[in-house]
Write a structure and sequence with these properties.
This protein has 441 residues and is α/β, with parallel strands linked by helices. The chain is built from 15 helices and 10 strands.
Length: 441
């Protein structure tokens, strides 16, 4: 009480107000101090984005006979994105051969999932020959890689990654607040009851984001046989579809599911969920990359791999929820999933051979005008097929680099105008026939 007597009333009020707000923030976990319930990035395990890309670039320079890298940038409405794409091919002179199995892998699409970008680095180290996995026969492994061309995007969402490293550990969107895995055209913009714009903002239109535009062009020019979008948050091996609670019909679906079950059993201790994303997670996702790659880009085998998740972590402790924080768990994730990818590389060629053989038989038996299974919708045509044409000599030609939404609008306007003109022409003919004078005897 002696302390209080020495202070005037306004000072006492200020002190109690400060104490009240400190207690409130502490209870709600909002103190400016470091709290035990929020895990920071462990830089003993995780690279910064700059260090990661520098290490990858050095790896490429040390192995020019196997690895090459290109930097791709795109801009939209003042927002620019840049992406590094690393290509693995054991014989650089033979990389364009149509006999090669082409695989496209994307990591770091969601900014807070740092573990995925570390896996990209590990895979590149193994492919280069600088690192090896236990219980892997090196000669057999490299023989299986002779037929492969693999493109790896180690950090798809670089701008979002910078935001995370600046302290916003729960951010998953890109640099202007768009979820890149909701910005694709298949079922774009549909919102579920639990929609959260801070998590799933789909953007102003499909492919509004430069990152998504780059990935779409890459899928068109590369024409992969296998696509994998790598995420974290849980342990799962997903196949289409994300936007509905079903999987595709027929042999391709059976082949994909068989491959995933085999990988899960041999390398992941059967810990992973296997099936469609929409049917296994408990919620539907609209406008995802994997659904586009399968439905529009017509990639025979399209997957989403979820490589880690801590279900016990607080929803506010995002780094711990999406990334292992202990070295033993970190190494386990790296080793198990590296082995899983290598297994997919080795069996992928055989699986694609089966699918192509099946497609050849079906197309030969159903060729002709009645081949309705080869028809595509106008939206699919504009989103995928119109982006590329192939000449008789097999050269790939980018013929359009315009906004797909604008093209779609103009195309529909053209179709509507054509229908109206045909209707008016037919009406005029009918009217003339009715008013023509009848010859009388």
């Amino acid at each position: 009480m002696g302390f209080c007597r020495g202070l005037d009333s306004p000072t006492i009020v200020v002190i109690f107000a400060l104490l009240f707000f400190d207690c409130f923030n502490f209870v709600h976990g909002e103190s400016n101090g470091t709290q035990n319930d929020v895990t920071p990035i462990n830089h003993d395990l995780y690279h910064t984005w700059e260090a990661l890309l520098e290490e990858i670039e050095s790896l490429v320079h040390r192995h020019p006979d196997r690895l090459s890298m290109e930097k791709i940038s795109s801009r939209n409405l003042g927002y620019e994105a840049q992406m590094n794409v690393v290509t693995y091919c054991r014989n650089q002179k033979d990389c364009d051969s149509q006999e090669k199995l082409r695989i496209l892998l994307s990591f770091g699409q969601h900014a807070r999932e740092l573990i995925t970008t570390e896996l990209a680095l590990r895979l590149l180290s193994v492919l280069s020959g600088e690192e090896f996995l236990p219980d892997v026969n090196r000669s057999t492994f490299y023989d299986s890689l002779d037929r492969l061309v693999i493109k790896i995007v180690p950090v798809e969402n670089l701008n979002g990654r910078k935001v995370v490293e600046d302290g916003q550990l729960c951010e998953r969107r890109n640099g202007r607040g768009v979820d890149l895995n909701r910005n694709w055209s298949v079922d774009w913009g549909k919102k579920e009851k639990d929609y959260d714009p801070n998590e799933e903002n789909p953007g102003s239109s499909p492919f509004s984001e430069p990152e998504t535009q780059i990935m779409r062009k890459l899928s068109v020019s590369f024409e992969p046989h296998i696509w994998v979008n790598v995420h974290s948050g849980m342990e799962a091996l997903f196949m289409p579809y994300d936007h509905k609670n079903t999987t595709p019909d027929g042999v391709p679906s059976q082949t994909m599911r068989s491959m995933l079950k085999q990988i899960n059993h041999l390398h992941l201790n059967d810990h992973c969920l296997v099936g469609s994303g929409g049917g296994s997670v408990g919620y539907l996702a609209h406008g995802t990359a994997t659904d586009y790659m399968y439905d529009v880009a017509r990639i025979p085998m399209a997957f989403t791999f979820e490589i880690y998740g801590d279900p016990k972590a607080s929803s506010k402790d995002c780094f711990k929820m999406f990334n292992p924080v202990e070295i033993a768990t970190f190494n386990r994730v790296m080793n198990e999933w590296s082995a899983a990818f290598l297994h997919m590389f080795s069996i992928g060629a055989r699986s694609i051979d089966k699918l192509e053989s099946k497609d050849t038989n079906e197309s030969s038996s159903s060729s002709g005008v009645g081949g309705f299974h080869n028809w595509v919708s106008i939206d699919d045509y504009l989103n995928g097929y119109l982006m590329q044409r192939r000449s008789r000599y097999g050269k790939k030609i980018e013929v359009l680099d315009l906004g797909v939404q604008e093209i779609r609008a103009y195309f529909r306007l053209f179709m509507l105008s054509s229908v109206l003109l045909i209707f008016m022409f037919c009406s005029r003919i009918i009217k003339n026939n009715r008013t023509r004078p009848v010859a009388r005897r």
